[in-house]
Amino acid sequence: MTDLSKLLQAKMPLAAWIIDVEQSSVPCCNEAAEALLIGSLKDIKLGQRAIPSGLRERLSLHLASLDIGESLPFKWPFTSKDGVEYQVRGSVIALEDARKGLFVEAHPVSHYDAVSVVQDDSIIVHHAGLLAQFRSLSFAIFDQYGQYLEASEHFIAHFGVIQHVRDLFAVSGAANSFIRRLAHQENLFQEIRLATQNGIRWHKIEVSYHPSTNMIYLLTHDIQEERDHEVALYRLNNYDGLTNLPNRNLLYHQLESALINARKRHRQFGLLYLDLDGFKVINDNFGHRVGDELIQRVAERIKDSIPSGACLYRLGGDEFVVVLENTNSIAELESIAESIMQNASNTYPVAKMEMMITASIGIASYPQHADNVDHLLKNADAAMYRAKSMGHNMCFVYQNSMAENIDAYLTLGGGLRKAIEEEQFILHYQPKIRLPDETVVGAEALIRWIHPELGMISPDQFIPLAEESGLILPLGEWVIRRACRQLQEWRKAGYPDIKLSVNLSSRQFMQADLVDMVERVLEETGVDSKYFELEAH
Q1: Where is the GGDEF domain (predicted)?
Q2: Over the stretch 126-152, which tens digit does the pLDDT of each residue have?
Q3: With contact defined as beta carbons under 8 Å apart, do 365 and 379 qualify?
C-alpha cells in the first residue's frame, strides 16, 4: 500500500484514488481526491470510504475479465460540488491477498472536450450520463471497428462483459456479416439471435452509425418470449395436438406448392386418403382416452410405413392423408397403400390390451384424376368411400364413376338419421325351406331403405354408412323390433310357428346392452326366444 500511496501523490494535482471493488471501499486517495470526493461517498469508517453498490456491480463485471495493468474500456462522468465536470479513468492493480483493485484518476473536462470530442476517446463521457438515465434500455456504444466502449446497466446485466461487438453473436457467420455491414457504415434494423447470460435468445436490434463521431450505437430488445409465443401459436394453428402431425392447414399449403411445382416441371404427385375402419366402435365402447391412444399408435405406424419423402397429415378424427410429390406412377402409390394396410392391421398395445384396426384408403393423383387441390382431395375421398363400402382393409384408385357415389354418400349420410326417425325402411323376408317336403321352416329378415327421392336403396349402400356413423345401433334395434312384431302377426293369422333370423354387424355385437335390448323387445312383443335368432354377417 506504501507504493500505491507514493503513486497517488505523484499524480497530484490530479485527483487519484484506489477502489477495492470486492470490499466496496476506497482504502486510499491523494489530497486532491480527498477534496474532490467530500460529500460524494458514503460513511467514512476506519479510514475507508464505501462506494455505491451500483458502481461496485458495474466495475466487478469488467474487473473479472481484465488483467493487472489493463485499463477499463470505459470512463464515467463525475461532477464536483462546485459544478466542475470530470471524466474518471481506471486501470487494474494488485491489492493484498492477490485480489484485483482499480487505480482511478479524474481528469477535468473542458467545454471544448465536452462539445467537440471527435478527436478524443473521451466522447464516451458525453454519452455516459445518457446511458445512466435509461436504466431499462439495453444500449451500447462501440467504436468504428466494433470495439466495446460503454453500455447501459441493463445491457451489461443482459450480455455480461464483452470486448467486441462480435462477442454478442451466437453464430460466427452472423457476426462476420454484421461486421461487413458496419464497415460500409450502414444503419441496420433486424431480428437476430444473440448470446446472453441466459443463453442464446432472439433480439430486435437497431444500429446507428454516426460519421461525425465515428461511433456505433446499438439498441437491443429481447423478443424471445414473443418468438416463443409465435411458435406456440403457429403449432396450435398448423399441427394436431394429439399426434403432433401437421393438420389440414399445412396440407393445403403443401398441396398448393406441389401443384405449382408439378405444373412447372410437368411432374406427377399423389395422395392417399385414409380412414380407419370401425374406429367409432372403439371410441364408444372403450372411451375417448383409449381411442386417442390408438390414434397415436396408428399415426406412428403409418409414419413408419411411408417413404422418407412422403408427408403424413391428420385431418381430425380417424382421417389421415399421405402426400407424395414427384411420383412416377399410380402403381407407386398403390404399393405405399398396401404397405400401410399391411402394417396398420397388426395389433396395437393400447391400455394394456392388444387392439386391431384396419384402414380404408383412397388414391388420387395429379394430373390423371384432378387439376386442382380441392378436386384431388374430393376424389381421393371418393375412392376411400368406395374402398370402405367394399369391405375393410382395402384401397381403391379413383375412377370417374366414383364421383356420383360420393355425392350419393353425402346425400344418404344427411338423410339416414331422418330415415330412422320416420321409419323409411321395410323388411323383406326370405323363406328357409326344408327340401324333402318343401315346408317353410324359417325366414331371414332383409332390410331395404325406401328413400322418398332416390327410391329403393340396397343395404350395400347404407349399412357401411350406418356403421361408420354409429346409427347402426338404433337401426338394428328397429329391425329386431319390427321382425318380432311380424312373427306375432303371422302367429295371430294362424300360420305355423317358424324361426326368424336377423343379421347383425360386428358393430352391433359389440353393443354393451345388446342382450338386455333383445330381451326387452322379446318381452314387449311376446315372442318366444326359441323362434328368434341373431346371425353375424
Answers
A1: 267-400
A2: 455 556 555 667 888 888 888 888 888
A3: no
